[in-house]
Design brief:
Blueprint lengths: L13 H26 L6 H13 L9 H30 L12 H28 L12 H8 L5 H29 L4 H30 L5
Helix pairs in contact: 1-3, 1-7, 4-6, 6-7
The structure holds protoporphyrin IX containing FE (HEM).
Length: about 230
């Protein structure tokens, strides 16, 4: 009889996959922090916001030609999103396979609640990003839709008569907030003290971080909706 032993590469172990989730999560969070802070420039007026958006496309010049930095960033973000989803899917499948009989009398298990929210939150965020790219990057779904005029695109997007766009953005950003709260809590808990006090601190820090980031994103559509930015 021939016995074959399949050795799993370390990255495909549970610890390896969790490291993939953490590293890709950090890359995505760094992008989100920079993007949120950049969006706040909308309060400095059209000229300044458009100038900033054009500068983003020029980062790396003259060391890198043309819009290379932008495309490198897009490549890194795409790989990070795909790896984050792939690692999450494998980990979720493994944890389900490890518990073939579902809990009959404990429907409100903390872990499964978090896993469900993360899964559906992740799906909403992914659908939002696809819509968002067609809206504000390519301009296909935007009333102005001119990639050289990001300020006008943003103002047209969240005009009061298009309240449903603001509503959709709000739902997606709230989903993003929940997703980030759980992700940040897992990260802070692993890094901090493994005590009830350490856990409470990690929970509070994750909540503050998620609320600050979500609020930073949400002020822009609501400023346009209420006429503060026009
Ligand atoms: C209300 C909140 C937001 C506003 C006003 C906003 C605004 C914008 C604008 C104006 C652009 C186009 C920049 C340009 O091409 O010059 C953009 C691009 C982008 N946004 Fe947002 N954004 C928001 C939230 C988000 C969120 C929550 C995410 C991710 C979950 C996100 C991900 C992206 C990505 C991936 C790009 C494409 C960057 C590229 O061109 O490579 N945005 N956003």
């Amino acid at each position: 009889m021939v016995v074959t032993t399949r050795t799993r590469s370390p990255i495909r172990s549970n610890v390896g996959l969790k490291a993939v989730m953490a590293v890709t999560g950090i890359i995505l969070v760094l992008f989100l922090i920079a993007h949120m802070l950049g969006n706040l420039k909308v309060f400095t007026g059209a000229t300044s916001f458009d100038h900033y958006a054009h500068w983003l496309r020029d980062i790396g010049k003259p060391v890198l030609p043309g819009v290379w930095f932008l495309w490198i960033q897009r490549g890194v973000l795409t790989v990070a999103v795909l790896a984050h989803i792939a690692a999450a899917t494998v980990l979720a499948r493994r944890s389900r396979a490890a518990r073939p009989v579902r809990y009959a009398h404990r429907p409100k298990v903390q872990g499964s609640y978090a896993a469900r929210t993360m899964r559906w939150g992740g799906v909403i965020i992914l659908l939002f990003v696809i819509y968002h790219l067609l809206d504000l990057t390519t301009g296909h779904l935007n009333p102005v839709g001119d990639p050289s005029k990001p300020y006008s695109n943003v103002v047209a997007d969240f005009a009061p008569e298009r309240w449903y766009v603001t509503l959709f953005y709000t739902l997606a950003i709230v989903a993003l907030g929940f997703h980030l709260r759980h992700g940040a809590f897992s990260a802070f808990r692993s890094l901090g003290q493994q005590t009830p006090r350490g856990e409470a601190r990690a929970r509070a820090a994750a909540l503050v971080f998620a609320v600050a980031l979500s609020a930073g994103f949400l002020v822009v559509p609501f400023a346009v909706l209420t006429g503060l930015v026009s």
